[in-house]
Amino acid sequence: MRLAILDANGNVVSTNRAWDDFEHLNGCRSPRFYGAADYIEACRGSTNQYAKEAPLVADGIETVLSGAANDFRLTYPFHSPSVERWFTCLVAPLPDTGGVIVLHVDVTDWMSQIDLKNAVESGTPVADSRQSTVRAWRELSVLVVDDEPAVLDATGALLAAKGFSVTTAGGADTAAAVAGTANRSFDLLIVDHGLADARSGGDSVARLRKAAGHDLPAIVYSGTPDAAERSVGGMEAVVVCSKSSGADALLAAIDGLVENRIPTPTG
């Protein structure tokens, strides 16, 4: 998953390693002069084979920056002579800075499983095989907990673009306070295994379930999945997902929990 943070003027503040590596490998001119490179202008000035989609991305970023839209999403082809690839661009606001986060998520596997390519190229709206799941996602409220701001922002933006109602927290203590609020009700937890204010992912899930008053389905998101698996033991409705597996693995893990999301009251 490629990630860039833009300021309120559309200038690049930072990019992750995946973004930089992809740009280099594909011969793209990456905005390196952080704070000065105008990503919107770069999109509008695109003259390569992706010139059709790039201005649409620029328009989408501007609508989110202006507040006219809560988010933006565009699926586009990025083919080479030897490889056929598809990506979805997701744009979501960063209220604290007035800027936006831009994600480019590889959806080639999805596109190879469903007959969307012609529809996307022709601009015809279609429903893919995940339609029922996506509809269900729009009914879900998720609490995302991670003490790495870039990961927290990226995960929250991805899920918001997928239709979730997303609340984020930078630690277990904050998340427990939010989960225990009388007027807040969550359907799903996504918790980092390595939170500084918790012993483990399993510990965080137990604390948040207690605060919420029921056994919320949970995903423990971890860079060390073996340790995370040990921490959750035999906990019901908990899935461990490796951060290195990317967005598709996280969404697949959510798929596996959506059908069994009805909470079980705790004693």
Report on this structure.
The protein is an alpha/beta fold and 267 residues long. The chain has 11 helices and 12 strands. A hairpin with a 5-residue loop joins strand 1 and strand 2. The C terminus is likely disordered. The strands form 3 sheets. It has a 5-stranded antiparallel sheet with strand order 2-1-5-4-3. The protein folds into 2 domains: 121 residues, Beta-Lactamase (2-Layer Sandwich); 131 residues, Response regulator (Rossmann fold, 3-Layer(aba) Sandwich), CATH 3.40.50. It is globular, with a radius of gyration of 19 Å.
**The CATH architecture of the largest domain:** 3-Layer(aba) Sandwich
CATH topology of the largest domain: Rossmann fold
Based on CA atoms alone, the radius of gyration comes out at 19 Å
Summed over residues and divided by their number, the pLDDT gives a mean of: 78
SSE string, helix = H, strand = E?
A: EEHHHEEEHHHEHEHEHEEHEHE
What is the CATH top level name of the largest domain? Alpha Beta
Largest sheet: 5 strands, antiparallel
Helix percent band = 25-40%
Shape: globular
Number of strands: 12
Low-confidence stretches: 30-36, 113-136, 262-267
The structural domain count equals 2
Kindly list the characteristics that best describe this protein.
alpha/beta, Beta-Lactamase, Rossmann fold, 12 strands, 37% helix, globular
In short:
With 267 residues, the chain is α/β, with parallel strands linked by helices. The chain has helices at 17-25, 39-44, 54-66, 108-113, 117-122, 131-137, 149-161, 172-179, 201-212, 225-232, 247-258, and strands spanning 2-6, 12-15, 72-77, 86-94, 99-106, 141-145, 165-169, 188-192, 214-215, 218-222, 238-242, 264-265.
